[in-house]
Backbone:
């Protein structure tokens, strides 16, 4: 399928999930993260969820990471496809941007080369680890700035798309893992 078709399909599927289901699935996803061999790393980048888009709630995962003394880094959009990355601390002030994404107002900047694990937002993914996001290119741009060995993990309420995404671009960055309520995919 084409990315624009998958965006529509998965936005519609996500809209069918109620708040209780989304909350339950998000907790399951956070627990599934324990199965992935990432616990020797210290710098974890994670997106902050857009409530209006019924995204995976990353708060349980953030709580898990902080409880294991990991450095949690969150993004702030700074240009048409770029973002800065800030250490999330108890004193970090968050404010929603024009897309409804909570972002740090200020704080401690963390360079991309420090980041070891990235939890990547997505709408859909396929069995090869290709993902479909919202189409703005923020995460592909960001991931190209990270070290090659940075581990990329998707979070999804839904299983892998049966058909491969047919319009994958050479600049698209594949996932290493994707976590769903039923399964952890390794690519």
Residues:
């Amino acid at each position: 399928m084409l990315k624009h078709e998958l965006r529509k399909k998965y936005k519609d599927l996500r809209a069918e999930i109620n708040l209780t289901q989304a909350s339950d699935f998000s907790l399951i996803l956070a627990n599934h993260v324990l199965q992935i061999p990432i616990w020797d790393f210290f710098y974890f980048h994670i997106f902050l969820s857009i409530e209006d888009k019924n995204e995976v709630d990353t708060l349980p995962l953030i709580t898990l990471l902080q409880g294991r003394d990991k450095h949690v880094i969150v993004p702030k959009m700074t240009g048409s496809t770029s973002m800065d990355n800030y250490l999330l601390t108890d004193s970090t002030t968050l404010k929603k941007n024009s897309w409804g994404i909570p972002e740090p107002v200020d704080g401690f900047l963390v360079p991309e080369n420090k980041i070891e694990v990235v939890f990547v937002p997505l709408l859909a993914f396929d069995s090869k680890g290709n993902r479909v996001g919202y189409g703005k290119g923020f995460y592909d741009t960001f991931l190209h700035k990270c070290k090659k060995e940075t581990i990329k993990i998707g979070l999804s309420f839904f299983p892998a798309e049966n058909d491969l995404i047919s319009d994958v671009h050479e600049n698209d960055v594949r996932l290493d893992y994707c976590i769903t309520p039923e399964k952890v995919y390794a690519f």
Q: What stands out?
A: The domain at 3-186 is CATH 3.40.50.10420 (Rossmann fold).
